[in-house]
Amino acid sequence: MSKQLYELGDRPPLGEVPEKMHAWLIRADRFGKPTEAFQKEVVNTPAIADDEVLVHVMAAGINYNNVWAGLGFPVNVIAARNKGGEPEDFHIGGSDASGIVYAIGKDVTNVKVGDEVVMHCGQWNRNCEWVQNGGDPMYSPSFKIWGYETNYGSFAQFTKVQGHQCMPKPKHMNWEEAAAYTLVAATAWRMLHGWGANSIKKGDVALIWGGAGGLGSMAIQIAKAVGATSVAMVSGEDKFDYCMKLGAKGCINRNDFDHWGMLPHWKDNAGYAKWLKGVRGFGAKIWEVLGEKRAPNIVFEHPGETTIPSSIFVCETGGMVVVCAGTSGYNATVDLRYLWMRQKRLQGSHFANAVQCNEMNELALRGLIDPCMSRAFTYEELPLAHQLMHDNKHPHGNMSVLIGATEFGLGTSGKPPVAIVHPTLPKGDVHTTPHPYPMSTPLPDIAEGEAITIADDGSKVSDLMHRGIISCTPDDVLGTVAKIMVDKEIHAVVVMDGQGKAIGVVSQTDMVLARQGRSPQEARSMRAGDIMTPGCATCDAEMLLSDAVSLMTGRRMHRLVVTENDRPVGVISMTDVVRKIIGE
Ligand code: NAP
């Protein structure tokens, strides 16, 4: 007689699905650090739909997504699913796994009971009109990351996946190695191979950011497999050997340069010249590593805000910068001249569709992808593995946890097709990416954006503004404008036309930029109208202070001219807001 529940490691006879299963659960009442959020429980084994497969999980991969799921931030994944009609008040995470097929729905044709599989983490509704019409499921509104945006991930004896998620497990890998690579390798595959004419090809040069990281280590191997040359970016020379053994031609230590970050304003000649010097030095370093003056045809991006300006600059004419994350920030600045004049492409990319996952997995089956597994944990240690990640103390490389496998190193059933030399992962646990945001982020849309409630005490601009406008005319010379600023101890002067209309602002920054490349005499004799920032940003005195602040932050401004009945009557500045915050 079949048992209702099997203990871990006591694998049910093939095809027998017990009513209950062991799992690590996250519940809303214990959202918090991983060691508290994850608790062992016994739950019902999920039923499967016609297009689904039930897999007995042998090992699961660890990703940052489920640190966020446990924190309940930035998305409460349980509440989000309940809102969508799913009844379960818990979350079973896990977006990477290896295991054995135990049951299949009637429409599943690609696997059968007993198959050893690895699973990719892309799910979509097969009835979605876009998908049914042959569209890339990655663009379907129904697309979800299994084990983060969906329940019944791989941190349980059984997981529920869609048939297409199952792919053959490489026979030469053990269970924990096989559970480690799919998410990162498939993401890297789409980034490099998914973008038409710009996809990577033999002879190309690829610049790979975070070469020793999860995505980067896969990107180096994928580039090598196609016959491309890669240059790996890392933050220390201790990672050079690792990236070279994976297949990089050479490495660059990003700490040898200091021009990273947002672009200086294009009007800031001196700042821009300094940036240009830095980025050209970086480009020359790429040439040095390559041994020839070639620019990368493809730049593999995920740090985002700090690196995009350089990535766009060094990318070959007609080449592509492909980005799947903004680990250092989301406001990437682009000098559009380089984008349009040299006809480069800045391409977003997110995970991969089933075809691409299988193309990637072919490489793994052929022994051309090392899973770069750094450490495997026991079932009991699952919260610890996430806690290390939460505390940024996890080892470099990809981590796995045993679920059904009773010991480390089990599950290999064949020799690697090619001789693999496992590269030694860089020692140490110093991470430069503090807490990457979850790979999937719900974004407000034109149609479905929910109003965000902001904490606001109802203050109005009129409560804080300074009445009276200190102004000049467009014909005033800068010497005069500067004297007004100094005498009145203000940072900007409003430029008014003959009809009393505010037509621009001359700020201290405008004055300083006007001096660049000119003698003091030349600068002093320029006119306010020549250097002002035109189109004076205004707000009504009755506007909510919070709205005025948004206007300023959005435009990166420090002050707004305040109007009443469309007439300028005063100024509100960030300094006024700061004074309010500290209660002055
Ligand atoms: P990872 O293993 O932590 O590696 C990221 C690497 O980026 C680090 O090792 C670090 O290498 C480098 N880095 C960090 N900060 C940097 C900076 N300011 N400038 C330049 N390089 C920097 O993470 P991962 O698994 O590769 O994932 C990277 C990002 O992609 C994460 O944000 C992740 O959430 C996202 N992701 C997105 C998808 C998707 O489908 N959209 C899928 C997977 C991952 P060095 O310190 O050696 O330079």
UniProtKB/TrEMBL annotation:
CBS domain: residues covered = 465-522, 532-584
Summary of subunit composition and partner proteins: Homotetramer.
Q: What is the originating organism of this protein?
A: Accumulibacter regalis
What is the official name of this protein in its record?
Crotonyl-CoA reductase
InterPro entries given for it? ADH-like_C (IPR013149), ADH-like_N (IPR013154), CBS_dom (IPR000644), CBS_dom_sf (IPR046342), Crot_CoA_red (IPR010085), ER (IPR020843), GroES-like_sf (IPR011032), NAD(P)-bd_dom_sf (IPR036291)
An example GO CC term for this entry is: cytoplasm
Q: Which SUPFAM superfamilies match?
A: CBS-domain pair, GroES-like, NAD(P)-binding Rossmann-fold domains
Entry keywords, A to Z: Acetylation, CBS domain, Cytoplasm, NADP, RNA-binding
Pfam families per UniProt:
ADH_N (PF08240), ADH_zinc_N (PF00107), CBS (PF00571)
- Gene Ontology MF term list: crotonyl-CoA reductase activity; RNA binding; zinc ion binding
Where in or outside the cell? Cytoplasm
